[in-house]
Amino acid sequence: MEKLLQVDDLRTWFRTSRGIVKAVDGVSFDVAPGKTRAIVGESGCGKSITALSILQLVPEPAGYIESGKIHFGGEDILERSWTDMRGLRGREIAMIFQEPMTSLNPTRTIGWQLSEAMTVHGKDAPAARARALELLERVGLRDPNAALRQYPHELSGGMRQRVMIAIALANRPKLLIADEPTTALDVTVQAQIMSLIKELQDELGMAMLLITHDLGIVSEVAHDVSVMYAGQVVEAAPTRDLFHDPRHPYTQGLFASLPARNRRGKDLMTLDGIVPDAANWPTGCRFAERCAHRLDACSAPPALHGSGTHRQVRCHLPSAMEVTK
Amino acid sequence: MSTTPPMLDVRHLVKQFPKRGGMFGKREVFTAVDDVSFQVNRGTTLALVGESGSGKSTVGMMLLGLLETTSGDVLYEGRPVIGLRGPERLALRRKLQVVFQDPFASLNARMTVAELVMEGMRVHKMYANDAERRARAQELLGQVGMPAHALDRYPHEFSGGQRQRIAIARALSVEPEFLVLDEPTSALDVSVQSQVLNLLRRLQRERGLTYLFVTHNLAVVDYLADEVCVMEKGKIIERGMVEDVFDHPQHVTTQRLLAAVPKVEM
């Protein structure tokens, strides 16, 4: 199938006093139209920087895209200048972040911010205002008319995230990038927001790139999942396959470390050691130091074996290679 | 049934805050904790769960004496603790320690790890001198899985999981009996969370510690806690053994909370 978004060998690096920090270091994945791919990983694995790279929003001047290709709808959008990206951002590709309070302007009303999202892309003001009301209704604000005149601080966290979703969807984007969209919310609100996002996704036929650390959310909403560790994708597969049978020792470790009823009274699996320093990645497998199955071969960097439609694993172990044949 | 009193006996605890914006001296109050009672038995773990604003952290703060109660009683080993002053209060504070959610905010950045872990021992005049306290600090850090060279470093030099271990070593330094754990793993990645949970389980086993676990993470409760109290709007709306409550939730809020947890289908 034609891919909507295709990221190839992306490297996003940062110049720092400690040297070059290779936060994203050779990441590839794709997103099919209307489908959801999740990128999961723990703090510092590079998942958020990957998301920001797609929109060319990496904090400059320290951060820069060293190499790689990002195709969106067939066009290599890394060729676009930062200003040319403005035609895409918020129109074709929209993004929502973890903390809506910091992404909304505290000095402007909800109605103003929602209308602005549309007028910058050419809609006239009365039409934008009418659509704003419609959007607030759609995302489930109790009193959308009142909300138009309210300021962000007057709304709860869950309501603010609904407003962010309304802004993101105002121009019917083809791709929504959601970076930890529910992490700051209570679990029942989180469930409401995720089901709202899924509903709207179906309605608009929109694809989603979901950045999260929450394996439960991945299990419930993503079609495909890429697991990141130390700036790279270490395993990728359709969600069901990956959850049923994780093959990379890091992915296995993540699942085994989850607390659950059937693990009561037993120790949870832990990953000993810490993530290596992004300014100084090991030359071989980046997970080797923490891996219980380490081989001699692991002193050489493993490639990401396998096919993008089935499963890919970045590991030298025979058990990992086998599924990718 | 045992005849010994529960380790902690909380009776009809209430906390009210004055509401802002009361005009013409009209005093309105907001009831954050509304007639909360529960008991925790020695060596067990009671989880206090609920969404933000349910009052669960406020209960923890009152038990620790970090917040005054409006009314109600708290008995520790059968003796009332509210209103204690002087040496009696100090003695209780030694037995009851706390570990907070955010290991970035709860450790003084200007103190070395050694100073952080020794501070409580100094306050409670434990051990003869600083050399002995330092040796004890080193021992404690070893028990929570921190390297010896951590002693002379500062908290910012460590990861979130390591800082949480330092916070636990600090809490253990005064030989407490009871730990209030307020979202101790919420700021941590899952692979680090599992290390901290394993550590808490081991410490409970080895030292017979009693835990009050304040959290919104129901998976952690299902794994670790013996009993659970579910809070909503300042009240306990359901309580019982974790298996009973989670498998047969009676209150609609408990059912809603449990249904909202995304399931990892493996």
| Average pLDDT reading of chain B | 90
The name of the CATH superfamily of chain B reads P-loop containing nucleotide triphosphate hydrolases
Q: State the largest interface.
A: A-B, 35 and 33 residues
The radius of gyration computed from the alpha-carbon positions of chain B, rounded to a whole number of angstroms, is 19 Å
* Mean pLDDT over the full residue set of chain A: 92
Approximate strand percentage of chain B: 15-25%
Strand order of the largest sheet of chain A: 6-7-8-3-9-10-12-11
Helix segment count of chain B? 9
Count of helical stretches of chain A: 11
Using the CA coordinates, give the radius of gyration of chain A: 21 Å
Number of domains of chain B: 1
By DSSP, the count of extended strands of chain A is: 12
What's the main sheet of chain A like?
A: 8 strands, mixed
Question: Which overall shape of chain A is indicated by the principal axes computed on the Cα atoms?
Answer: globular
Describe the fold and architecture:
The complex is a heterodimer of chains A (325) and B (266). Among the domains of chain A are: 103-172, no CATH class; 249-322, no CATH class. The model of chain A has no long low-confidence stretch (mean pLDDT 92). Chain A has helices spanning 47-54, 100-103, 110-119, 125-138, 144-149, 157-169, 187-204, 215-221, 239-244, 249-256, 318-322; strands at residues 5-16, 19-31, 36-40, 63-72, 75-76, 93-96, 175-179, 207-212, 224-229, 232-238, 305-306, 312-313. With 325 residues, chain A is α/β, with parallel strands linked by helices. In chain B, the strands form 2 sheets. Chain B has a 6-stranded mixed sheet, with helices on both faces. Chain B has a single domain (8-260), classed as Rossmann fold, CATH 3.40.50. The model of chain B has no long low-confidence stretch (mean pLDDT 90). Chain B is of the alpha/beta class. Chain B has helices at 56-63, 86-95, 113-123, 130-143, 160-172, 190-207, 218-224, 242-247, 252-260, and strands at 8-18, 29-40, 45-49, 71-76, 79-80, 96-99, 178-182, 210-215, 227-232, 235-241. Chain B is 36% helix and 24% strand. Chain B is globular. Classes of the chains: A alpha/beta (325), B alpha/beta (266). The A-B interface holds A 42-43, 186-191, 194, 213-217, 219-220, 240, 243-244, 253-255, 257-261, 263-264, 267-271, 274 and B 51-52, 159-160, 189-195, 197-198, 201, 216, 218-220, 222-224, 243, 246, 256-257, 259-266.
